[in-house]
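note to self — DONT lose this again. spent like an hour looking for the file last time. sequence + predicted structure for the chain T wanted, 140 res
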Amino acid sequence: MEEINFFNEEIKFDLINADNIRKWITSVVKSEHSTIETINYIFCSDEYLLKVNQEYLNHDYYTDIITFDNSEIAGAISSDIFISIDRVEENANINQSDFDNELHRVMIHGVLHLVGYKDKTDEDKIIMRAKEDAYISLLS
């Protein structure tokens, strides 16, 4: 059974249109020829995500998203995706974007990693951004 869950850690945050976002994410995953077992989005503070980054990845810096791929079967997604709401707000300001658009970009960015997209090289970043843009345009 497919599950997409939304949790908070150390912050109060209410995701707007959660049901629409679940449908959107499901649609994106299907169009990328994968399925969802469980995706847990954990919305948190900068400090909370910094601790996760330090403890599990040995990285000592702030980030907007960390995606843990817990999948055991190829093409069947099981994941915990941590998103710093503080970072999303700051990135929205820097990019002169609205908060919801930036949040949706980060949310789908994690999913795109789970279905196989990378963003280490300039070419990969261009492909990732194009996919993000295309899928964000489908969110109604």
